[in-house]
Amino acid sequence: MNNRNSPKHVVIVGGGFAGLGCARHLSSKNEVRVTLIDKNNYHQFQPLLYQVATSLLAPDDVAVSFRNLFRKHPNVDVKEAEVVSADPVAKTVTTSSGEVYQGDYLILAAGSQPNFFRTSGAEEYSFPLYSLNDAERLRSRILKVFEDADRNPAIIDQGALNFVIVGAGPTGTEMAGTLAEMIHHTMSAEYKDLKVTAARVYLIDHGHAVLGSFSERAHEYAARVLKRDGVQIRLGTSVQEIGPGHVVLSDGTKIMTHVVIWGGGLKAAPLAANVGLPVGRSGRVDVRPDLTVEDFPGVYVLGDFANIPSPDGGLHPQLGSVALQTGTWAAQHILSEIKSIAHWPFHYHDKGIMAMIGRNAAIAEIGEHRHELYGPGAFAAWLGVHAYLMSGMRHRIDAYVEWAWDYILRSPGSQVLDRSDAARIDWGEDDHNEGQETSQEEKT
Amino acid sequence: MNNRNSPKHVVIVGGGFAGLGCARHLSSKNEVRVTLIDKNNYHQFQPLLYQVATSLLAPDDVAVSFRNLFRKHPNVDVKEAEVVSADPVAKTVTTSSGEVYQGDYLILAAGSQPNFFRTSGAEEYSFPLYSLNDAERLRSRILKVFEDADRNPAIIDQGALNFVIVGAGPTGTEMAGTLAEMIHHTMSAEYKDLKVTAARVYLIDHGHAVLGSFSERAHEYAARVLKRDGVQIRLGTSVQEIGPGHVVLSDGTKIMTHVVIWGGGLKAAPLAANVGLPVGRSGRVDVRPDLTVEDFPGVYVLGDFANIPSPDGGLHPQLGSVALQTGTWAAQHILSEIKSIAHWPFHYHDKGIMAMIGRNAAIAEIGEHRHELYGPGAFAAWLGVHAYLMSGMRHRIDAYVEWAWDYILRSPGSQVLDRSDAARIDWGEDDHNEGQETSQEEKT
Predict the structure, then answer these.
(1) What pLDDT does A342 receive?
(2) CB-based burial of residue A110 (10 Å sphere; 0-12 exposed, 13-18 middle, 19+ buried)?
């Protein structure tokens, strides 16, 4: 290992599934040292943010500190900073406070932001659900309207208990189902003199199906479950205007509401416009099948931040599993490149898609052939997958129960004791190779 | 039980140890219905806020939703509102949004706020540690200065890693000890290219002892432990001025710092000035030994909100255990009054005081005779007591581990699923009488 004395520097911008997956795979590899830069000091587990918004999980349950994760990996350093521009030739990035980081390799994985599609009032008056901050703001808002209505029931007639969700993709659909259950089961038990039955959840989508990216049977199943739980579904309808107390739909309907939740789409994070690379659809960087851009060797663009061509001529969807796999792939590729092994294209192993609509009600379309599962079976599968993905965060529980003993025995310091074992979160197959050399042949 | 058809209405202002203790004792009692009003929708477990500030516990670990706590008690209703005034004759309270609540009994337990003693700049530039919001703000601040210094080490010379704690009472002392350990054990492991050893913790007090309310041996023990952990102690010294980047002490010393933590004392919450009752020391309501005020029958003032005479001619200290006991006492007294049983004075059962200074280092002075314990034994006692007090919150862990199953089996709705079992938090002896009639004779 003659690179031991001069490890290559890998600068990673963004600690979502893609950036973190990459950093995890490179940790403990002697050939590289890593600087992971993120505007937060924690990774947020995006797929469960809607559970934070509906008070099923606490914010700290879906966040894990980067420094804690890499505490035992001396070759990974973390910087909390907002990157505002990048130079793909010099392979430098610049932060909002002016620091510059230069790498031998540059990984751009800054993710997405909500896309409001210039809908009037959407940015001012709706609640997106993309970051942990978003989820906490939305949680406060939902609880606040219930408390306000409890003290002053007159505002129910002004729509205080109407919740309008824009977009029937996975985020909007999961939010609609969970919110409906929260209202009917939790709020009705906890508010003793509030007419909780007056609450309404609306799910609006301009397309003609709930969970449009799923199969036709899934569309029907999801719609049936949501209707059973009282959700009002308006398909083929877009939102024309959002105001401080109402929305106006494309068919002219006006719905009075104090909470509009925006699940209407994503576009690239603003950084994409300042990295000196060509951008395409939704403002994302257009990359080649090997996640690089012509003329800029050593620069990789990952996950949601890129438009990644798929073998069928289209683009890979914006999914956590795609992002995670691009991260692992880029890490493997860099390690091979250091040894001068030739390039090979990114290949997405499609394990399927899932959505949880309510208790016992979920949809799982498994594998590339989309084996379909509905209802309790799919719900069990959903639980299993998330239990697996969140195993680190579930470990935190044991850590918490044991905190007294840790404390006495002076366990390895941990900034967030009740998250300490979250460091062991499983990032796909990556974990099993921990500390080993991974060759191209093994993985492709 | 001929009051069953017309239960007396008890309005409780404040859901701290006193108000919540009272509400808990009255829940499931047919003679009364309770309205508990608090400006937050959750109870905060004040004694462990410093652990939130130092990232040892998550904010949701020390908060529990009132509605969740009283979910199964139809005679207790909760209102999230800020009470701005009270009329002790009409027994009404008015909220900031204008709602009025009237009771047959009125319980004022609105607690304290930080007392800055007109120290120049203290309110603008220091971080108090009294509410969960305070703890979260302080946590963010502490993490931020480390992140800032990590990116820009030059600011260390401007005092970025100096932490100044004002007040060596339990809050300040526990904070100093925990912060010093956080720095030396956690931060030094997590920050790879930051000179963490440059960090300093200062503990300032105008008195001549650390933990002045404890015994002399405790003073020495606490000081020794803190010094061992590198804390700089400045006794007989007050703070003259706090600025955005410094403090000036009474001996003229200027300490550069970006974080000043205020543990300098408490006074009554602002409501005390607007309840039409006589106030005394620290703005608290002066009450008689039965926690009432002459001429205002049916109005009880509890916990930190009152100056409560003790049998020795002084006042009871502002302690959680005093507050909790006043709450239980008032509840018992009201139940007896409904049955026309005569008055008796509040008696505080002094179970002792404790402080945790660091791992294996604590002080416990047990019982009225102050049996003293130091070091690992006291630390074990501290852990035991807090494990007991927080048992509900520790139960939430089990709830969390089981959430998948709860979810499938449609357990009783819970607004904060991972807190659901926190409803079972033990509020002293109260719990064992759950649902039973408690007579005066049994309890005094």
Answers:
(1) 64
(2) buried
Instruction: Determine the straight-line distance between the first and last CA of chain B, rounded to whole angstroms.
Output: 23
**CB B65, CB B42: distance < 8 Å:** yes
CB B113 within 8 A of CB B121: no
Confidence label for A72 from pLDDT (cuts 50, 70 and 90): confident
What value of ipTM does the predicted structure carry?
Answer: 0.78
Look up the CATH number of domain A1-39+81-115+266-349.
3.50.50.60
User: How far B253 CA sits from the closest chain A CA (Å)?
Assistant: 32
- Closest CB from A61, A71, A404 relative to B189: A71
Contact status of B140 with chain A (Cβ, < 8 Å) = no
- Residue B415 in contact with partner chain A when CB distance is under 8 A: yes
Residue type at position A403:
W
Confidence bin at B303 (pLDDT 50/70/90):
very high
Q: How many CB atoms lie within 10 A of CB B284?
A: 24
Handedness of CA B29, B33, B36, B42 (dihedral sign): positive
Q: Does A147 touch chain B (CB under 8 A)?
A: yes
pLDDT band for position A398 (50/70/90)?
very low
Taking the CA of residue A289 and the nearest CA in chain B, the distance in Å comes to 35
Distance CA B366, CA B364 (A): 6
**Is some CB atom of chain B closer than 8 A to the CB atom of A59?**
yes
Q: Do A56 and B418 touch (CB under 8 A)?
A: yes
Domain boundaries, given as residue ranges, for chain B? 1-39+81-115+265-349, 122-264
Between CA B182 and CA A383 the distance in angstroms is 35
End-to-end CA distance of chain A: 23
CA distances, A338 to each of A1, A2, A4, A73 (Å): 11, 11, 12, 20
The dihedral sign for the CA sequence B201, B203, B209, B214: negative
Strands (E), B52-169: 63-65, 76-80, 83-87, 92-95, 100-102, 105-108, 112-114, 126-128, 162-166
pLDDT attached to residue B389: 64
Strands A76-80 and A32-38: parallel
Using a pLDDT cut of 70, give the percent of chain A over it: 85
- Residue A358 pLDDT: 76
Pick the CATH number of B122-264 from 2.40.50.140, 3.30.530.20, 3.30.1360.120, 3.50.50.60: 3.50.50.60
Residues in chain B closer than 8 A to A397 (CB atoms): 397, 400-401
For residue B197 the two structure tokens come to 């050893």
Which of the residues A61, A145, A190 would you substitute to probe the B interface, choosing the one with the greatest number of B C-beta atoms within 10 Å? A190
CB contact (8 A) between residue B359 and residue A418: no
Q: Which of residues 161-200 of A touch B (CB under 8 A)?
A: 182, 185-193
Task: Look at domain B1-39+81-115+265-349 and name its CATH class.
Answer: alpha beta
Which candidate from A81, A95, A147 shows the least CB-CB separation from B80? A147
From the CB of residue A67, how many other CB atoms can be counted at a distance below 10 Å?
Answer: 27
Question: Which of A57-66, A270-279, A402-411, B182-191 has the highest mean predicted lDDT (pLDDT)?
Answer: A270-279
